[in-house]
Design a protein that fits this description.
About 55% of the residues lie in helices and about 5% in strands. The protein has a three-stranded antiparallel beta sheet. Strand 2 and strand 3 form a beta hairpin. Helix 2 runs antiparallel to helix 3, helix 3 packs across helix 5 and helix 7 packs across helix 11.
C-alpha cells in the first residue's frame, strides 16, 4: 500500500529510516510518522536540492508558511525534530557540511496555542446530556465518562477489552497506547460504579464497547459521533471532539493543583515537559506558585 511512496523517497532518506528501525529501534508508528514528515517537507519546500543541502532560511520560510496555513506549534515542533534528525544523519554520513537545524528551536519564535478544552460548567452539561434511558445510551454515557474521567485517547478507548478493567484496583489497563507505553489509569469511583453495572450485561471477554447491531468493536468514527451527539444535546459547539475531553481532563486536574508529573503519567506522555502545554490554559499559575515561596522579605 505504501510502496509507491517509498520508491519516491531519496536513498539517503531510506537509509535514515532504516537506521531508525535497526539502530534507533523506533516503533513502526514512529517511522511512519517520520516518513510522512519528510515526504511533506520535500513537497512543501519545492526544491530539487536535497533537504540536507538547504539553508536555515529555507526551513524558516517553509515553517512560517506551514504556520500560516494552520499547522499547530506541536506539529511544527514535530516536523523540526524529524528534519533535524535527518540532517544530523546526513552530516554524520558525510553528505552534508553541517546540520543547519542543530540548536534551532521554535520555543522563542512562536506562540504556543493552548489546547481546546471545556470549562467545568460545560463538562457538567455534557455529562448531564448523556443521562438517557436504554442500553445504547448507557454505553454512550460510559464512552463520554471514560474519555473525560480517564483522559483516554480515542484509539485507546476503542482498543479496550472487558479484561482491561482491573476490578481489584479499580483501574483501566491501557495496553494499546501511543508510543507502545502501556499504563494503568485509576477510574473515578462514580464512573467505576456505572462501569460495573454496564459490565453485568456485556459478558466477561471481548471488546468493552461494541456497536448495537453487528456487535463489533466501536471504531474511532463511532466514538467521534457519540461525542458530537452529546455535545449537540448539551448545546455545545460542534468543535467538541474526543480530544477536547482528553484536554479537559488534563486542564481540570492542573487547575486543581495536581502535580505535572502525575498528569503526564495518567495521560501516557513521555515526560512532564510534554504535558507542560496545559500550563498555557491556566494564566498566572507559574506566577502564583512563585508567590508561595516563604521568603517573607528577609533577603
Amino acid at each position: 500500500m505504501t510502496k509507491p511512496n517509498i520508491e519516491r523517497m531519496d536513498l539517503l532518506i531510506e537509509g535514515y529510516l532504516s537506521y531508525l528501525d535497526k539502530v534507533g529501534r523506533k516503533t513502526a508508528r514512529t517511522i511512519i510518522d517520520v516518513r510522512c514528515t519528510l515526504r511533506h517537507a520535500v513537497a512543501g519546500l519545492g526544491s530539487e536540492v536535497p533537504l540536507w543541502h538547504l539553508e536555515l532560511t529555507d526551513y524558516l520560510h517553509w515553517l512560517e508558511v506551514e504556520r500560516q496555513t494552520g499547522s499547530t506549534e506541536t506539529t511544527l515542533a514535530k516536523y523540526l525534530s524529524h528534519l533535524r534528525g535527518l540532517l544530523e544523519y546526513a552530516w554524520r554520513s558525510g553528505r552534508a557540511e553541517r546540520n543547519v537545524l542543530d540548536g534551532f528551536s521554535l520555543q522563542h519564535t512562536m506562540r504556543r496555542t493552548p489546547p481546546k478544552s471545556l470549562t467545568l460548567e460545560e463538562a457538567e452539561r455534557l455529562i448531564e446530556a448523556t443521562a438517557l434511558p436504554g442500553p445504547t445510551a448507557r454505553r454512550d454515557r460510559l464512552v463520554i465518562l471514560l474519555l473525560y474521567g480517564c483522559g483516554l485517547r480515542t484509539d485507546e478507548l476503542c482498543a479496550l477489552d472487558v479484561a482491561n478493567v482491573n476490578r481489584e484496583r479499580h483501574e483501566l489497563l491501557v495496553l494499546k497506547a501511543k508510543g507502545d507505553r502501556p499504563r494503568a489509569v485509576p477510574i473515578p469511583e462514580a464512573v467505576y460504579t456505572e462501569l460495573l453495572a454496564y459490565l453485568l450485561d456485556h459478558g466477561k471477554r471481548g471488546a468493552l464497547f461494541r456497536t448495537t447491531i453487528r456487535k463489533s468493536r466501536l471504531r474511532v468514527n463511532d466514538i467521534c459521533e457519540i461525542v458530537r451527539a452529546a455535545a449537540r444535546r448539551a448545546s455545545l459547539p460542534n468543535s467538541v471532539t474526543p480530544r477536547t475531553l482528553r484536554h479537559s481532563f488534563a486542564t481540570h486536574l492542573m487547575d486543581r493543583g495536581v502535580d505535572l508529573a502525575v498528569i503526564a503519567s495518567l495521560m501516557g506522555h513521555r515526560s512532564p515537559q510534554e504535558t507542560g502545554v496545559y500550563l498555557h490554559v491556566l494564566p498566572g499559575r507559574p506566577q502564583a506558585a512563585v508567590r508561595k515561596l516563604p521568603l517573607g522579605g528577609r533577603l
